[in-house]
Amino acid sequence: MALLEVKDLEVEFPLGRITLQAIRKVSFSLEKGERLGIVGESGAGKSVAAFSILNLLSRPGRISGGEILFEGDDISKFDDRQMRSIRGNRISMIFQDPMMTLNPVLTVATQMIECLKAHRKISKKEAWDISVSKLKEVMIPSPEERMESYPHELSGGMRQRVVIAMALLTDPEIIIADEPTTALDVTIQAEIMVLMLDLCKSNNVGLILITHDLAVVSQVTERIMVMYAGRVVEEGGTKEVITNPKHPYTRGLLKALPQENTAGSRLNQIRGTMPSLNALPKGCAFNPRCDFATKECHQVVPKLEGRDGHNTACIHLEKIPSFKSELGNQ
Amino acid sequence: MQATLVMFVISLIGFSIQDNLGDPLRELVGQSVSEKERDALRDRMGLNDPFLVQYGRFLSNAVQGDLGNSYFFKKPALEVIARKFPATLELVIGATFIIIFSSVPLGIYSAIKPNSWLTRFILGISIVGISVPVFLTAIFSIYIFSVELGWMPSFGRGETTAPFGWDSGFFNGDGLLHLILPSLSLASIMMPLFIRLIRSEMMEILQMDYIRFAWAKGLYPKRIWFLHAFKNTLLPVITVGGVQVGTMLAYTILTESVFQWPGMGFLFLEAVNRVDTPLIIAYIIVVGLIFVVTNTVVDLLYTWVNPTVKLVGQKS
Prior knowledge:
heterodimer; A: alpha/beta; eight-stranded mixed sheet; 12 helices; B: mainly alpha; 2 domains; 73% helix; 0% strand
């Protein structure tokens, strides 16, 4: 049994008369110590999927279908009290912008110790010691002093390290990281990513990494899941998907990355934009932007199918040339 | 420094209006004194001197703590005001307590449960509170609680004791009973404002990422509401609160006159009726001083709550 298993998850946002379906029939699983990357453009539903695991959807969002099994228990049906024992204890989160994640009027010590005290019967001294040791783990210099700091006294990279240390405080089984490096400088991004990778490996923590940065995903994760307009369009081993992407959308994302041998030329981009959730095209949601789209694509919602764990949701897989040959033609 | 400047401007304005308040001599001496004698008296009192000379004299006395003698009481104006000050202070303290202990829980509740019927009720009542002027609230509360129900006294401070050297109504039942209605009506103008302020600030804070992160950390809801969210809510509330203390002092004039409360505000109204200029100016200056002091206290409080603000010269 997988540690975390999400089955046919559906999330909707009832907004007055209309109801937006943010997530449609999304399934994935995570083994202990496994690292999964969820990739997609803004609005693809990756953050919503992440937040729905801990039932932290912003109002009025709600899980309208499916199951979220954590060690076999469906935590999507848990009440607030049961959910509290999971949040920050067994599954913790790292948010996107470290400038906004820490409470500006409370010290680092307060914010770390309260987390331990919320989940364990523990003295302040013990909690302090654990917090300091975690700050050391994320390589914060002079952690004892930093404990007394307020968030505004720390740099962005330092704050994200503090947030990571907080996520590790209770030795959780899973960490969900929602674009943890997007708001940071490029140089610090790499540092933080390497740090997270090392910590997840050494502590055998499962990681769900949400990002739109394919480079980051390829370095850190073992499996990858590509989302588009609330559905999974491709999933598989990271290396396999990156080197041999099948879905036109995944290909588009990869082609949009700068390549070594195409310096100076214009970057490829996927034409058009992600459709709004209240005006999704019929059939495959990607069809208005797809080079291979046919009449059929406007009628059928493709199923996620494939071999060896590499699944793709596209009905034209046979027609589409292999990714390597396509790149070679340019 | 700034405070000194503010006090200087207040004294200038206060002093310059005195000529426009009417002739103090009329109240002072009555009808039978001839115009010649009046003029001599004016000369002796320095009322015929140029404005700047009068103001200079006033200022040099003022910095030594002498704001002139009240024409009516024939005593130093400051002393007259100081005797009435505890009554007003107690009224303001009573009202402040009522405001804090009602608007904080009600504001927080209505922010946490924005759609409950109780929230709608609270907000509805607070609209009424804002719209009804304080003298009406006062008169109605007298009518209901004193006249009809007979629970509360309708005027005065009641019995006072002086355990610390000033007359206080805090330390005996009768004094406290007399305090309830006046401080309630005084509080009624500020309470709705603060409930709404706390509610809207808190609702905004509850949307912040750090609150969501606090939930993701699995903290107890009480800790998230009362520490994480409320401490951030306090910042703008403290700022507004400091300014409102001044407004509240102004409203004591109304409240005190309705309840015949022997405080500064009541005294001020009497002084205006008697054209007791030194007393009027002294009142304006004392109120200005209170305003400056409370705002300084508020600034200090603000730095205590908000770690990102440091006073100039304070080590970071």
